[in-house]
Amino acid sequence: MTAPSLISRLSTRLGRAARDDSGTSTVEFAILFPLVISVMLMSYETSIIMARQFMLDRAMDIAMRGLRLGSWPEITHAEFKEKVCENVPFGLECSDALAIEMVPVSKTTWTMPDGAITCVDRTEEIQPVTTFSQGPDNGLMMVRACMTIDPFFPGVGVGLKLDAAPQDGFYLTSTSFFVNEPGTGG
To answer: Residues in domain TadE-like (predicted)?
Structure first.
């Protein structure tokens, strides 16, 4: 067999393979299917995150009513955390994943608390202490809550771009303000 005949046979077969259109839908499927599925999973993940954020905000608002009205003048950190967790639906891992901070805000300087909100670090057994002060009468109070949750699909799109918490979780935060009623402050 000579080299020119080998080259001509090879070019004939390559030309025939190039003109063959069988399997083209498989190539389109292999390229587009992962893209379509990842967009679908990202939209589902986003809706789950938004629902969890809404549930945390709602639970905080319901628990804050008692503080705003002065119904619980001597409430402790653990009691308030329990009140928030009572209102979180669908059994989110609330008590072990929620950190709450209540601090007074100066009405003369309007300076907000320094630093980021303290959240639960699941890699540590002992969690950092957060401030929980009732504040003075007619004092402006800021309450911040941070819940550490896991993404629904951690390896897809939105889960990869979120601010990472220890052990592949991320943080949801909720902030609320109220003014202590006269006679109810600390």
So the answer is: 23-64
Going by C-alpha positions, the residue among 119, 116, 55 that lies closest to residue 90 is 55
Q: What is the mean pLDDT of residues 25-36?
A: 85
The total domain count for the chain is 1
Angle at 171 (CA atoms; ends 168, 177), nearest 5 degrees: 170
Residue 129 CA to residue 132 CA, distance in Å, equals 9
89-122 burial by CB neighbour count: b if 16+ within 10 A, else e?
eeebbbeebbbbbbebbeeeeeeeeeeebbbbbb
pTM over 0.90: no
pLDDT value at 167 more than 60: yes
Position 55 pLDDT exceeds 60: yes
Greater confidence (86 vs 122) lies with 86
Q: Does residue 112 contact residue 142 with C-beta atoms inside 8 Å?
A: yes
Beta strand pairing call for 140-149 and 169-179:
antiparallel
How far apart (Å, rounded) are the C-alpha atoms in residues 77 and 83? 10
- Residue 60 within any structural domain of the chain: yes
Domain that holds residue 131: 26-179
Q: What is the pLDDT of residue 174?
A: 92
